[in-house]
Amino acid sequence: MFSRDRWSEIIEALTANWFRTVLTAFGVLWGIFILVILLAAGKGLENGVKQGFSGIATNTMFMWTQVASKPYKGMPKGRRFSYDMDDVTAIKDQVPGLRFVSPRNQLGGFGGANNVVRGLNTGAFNVYGDYPEIIQQEPMDITTGRFINYSDINDKRKVAVIGEGVKTTLYDSGEDPLGTYIKINGVNFMVIGTYKKKSQGGDIEEGQKQIFVPFTAFSQAFNRGDKVGWMAITARDGYSITELKENIIDIVKTRHTIHPEDDRAIGNFDLYQEFSKVNGLFIALKAVAYFVGVLVLLSGIIGISNIMLIVVKERTNEIGVRRALGATPWSIRGQILMESVFLTIISGMAGIILATAVIWLVNIQLSGMDTSEMMFLNPSVNLGVVMIALSILIISGLLAGLIPAQQAIRVKPVDALRTE
To answer: pTM of the predicted model, to two decimals?
Structure first.
């Protein structure tokens, strides 16, 4: 029940020495400020890093062939082998939980060594033979035209989707590439679309200098037959590609007579595993933020507890008189606890407001900048964090006042009235 007299007494007790009260409250204010700022900074870093994964099917692995490092069933060590379309079919049929198994072929290597010609302009670009699903596994925005489809695959159409970097190199400013032809290793392909890669935290400029053509047309034009250079494999929601990976690799080893323990023969990159490590890192950062923030807050709480002990000492006569007039121990204890919680919550809320103002100013500054390639984006804290902070404040206030409250109820009325 609200008591005007009690709250007047609390405010009078805390303002009797306002400078001491302000210094004590600053410890709690600073602790909660540090906690909120650390959590917001961690969230901003997490948002920036995850922005680099936006649009990517993170539950994906990439798999390619290497050299067999162990002899097996009469096959020698050092043997090279290649995937084929039957491998793709076997993986799809034998591994449940897969969403996409996309075979890929490539010209040019990661540095781009093949020649692409249009008129008098030439360039060296990576050229990929792909299936339509690849656009759901890699982040890509179609800026004009369209991406390859299954009609292109079935009809083995020699069509191409080029990056904005390819367009800049081979075409004049303002020139529309759609419907024009480019020559890839001497074979003509008609441009049906242009794309722009989304940020992946890597070399974005290099990502715009790639060309995508139908897998079947690539194989026919460059005499690849049914060979597959590498695969992009994505699991369905509810499945982990990391858990399915071993089964996938075992199928390939069996089909190509690779020793079951030859882990070097099959190259792979598990994007889901790497993404999980990133998530684990941010969980650890959040734990560190809570740990540091709570420690700083604890120092402020200790300061409040010390001040409340001093206040109890200063009010020994008052407490003795109240006890002599019939005040119960719980009444005395409740008064001290309320003063402690009140001071803690007021100073803590001031810290939350100050931290919110700082985060708001940072977001205003970031809103005027291009954050597409930044590793820091939209620092913020959600309502749950604020509720946690308030809970910590209330519990801390109770703990801060507990020892002084117990000290107060131990005061004997006779001894208190004797003190000068």
So the answer is: 0.67
